Amino acid sequence: MIPVIVVALVVYARTLAPTLTWGHHGSDGGDLVTAVATAGVPHPTGYPTYTLLGRLFLLIPWGDAAHRINLMSAVFAALAAGLLYLILLRTFRLFKAQPPGLTARFAAAAALSFAFAPLFWSQAVIAEVYTLNAFFIALVIYLVLRWMERPDVRVLSAAALACGLGMGNHVTIVLLVPALLALLAEEVRHLGKLLEKSSPKSLAQT
């Protein structure tokens, strides 16, 4: 995971926009950077998660505000690529793909191919919300896969938290919910039975 993140981040840093730019369809950059710098609210849906995380990146002691927020896009793009690597490894493990060394190489190649796909790369070097959205989507999927391997309510809770934070960045992450509910259907049924047993009516009958 670390080599994938480092390679992606180094390349992003070398190609990072130095300040605001109209390139790569970056017309929202001024709106987003201003909102972060003033603790304001950008255009709907407001992107509170993005704005709050951006405040942390403003603490970086070099470049102007736009450059620092551009760097935030690069960091979360690299982290998304790293998570994709872990997602692929766990998927290979679930399907018992062999040998492990070869699957790790395939996962790294696929993750870096994603990182340097022209569209994703273009969003990793400007002030935009999409790489943070990719990070939260990848994080939710990774946590759900971890839970599928070894059920743990804390992992499931972390996935729910990541999904909620992701909605504070870009509401399209809600499109993951039906797929996640399908994966977690058995656990949802189990939870329903527990709730039914713990209801006041059931307790009164016992």
Structure commentary:
This protein is an all-alpha fold and 206 residues long. 71% of the residues lie in helices and 0% in strands. The chain has helices spanning 2-14, 29-38, 48-57, 65-94, 100-115, 118-123, 130-149, 153-167, 176-183, 185-197, 200-205. Helix 7 packs antiparallel against helix 8. The longest helix is centred in the middle third of the chain and has 30 residues, at 65-94. It is globular.
Question: Characteristics of this structure?
Answer:
206 residues, mainly alpha, 11 helices, globular
Helices and strands, with pairings:
Blueprint: H1 2-14, H2 29-38, H3 48-57, H4 65-94, H5 100-115, H6 118-123, H7 130-149, H8 153-167, H9 176-183, H10 185-197, H11 200-205
Give a quick rundown of the structure.
The chain is mainly α and 206 residues long. The chain has helices spanning 2-14, 29-38, 48-57, 65-94, 100-115, 118-123, 130-149, 153-167, 176-183, 185-197, 200-205.
Overall outline: globular
Rg, alpha carbons: 20 Å
Treating each run of at least 4 consecutive H or I residues as one helix, how many helices?
11
> What order do the helices and strands follow?
HHHHHHHHHHH
Mean pLDDT: 87
- Sheet/helix structural class: mainly alpha
Please give the number of β-strands.
Answer: 0
Distance between the termini: 52 Å
Oligomer status? single chain
The description of the largest β-sheet is: none
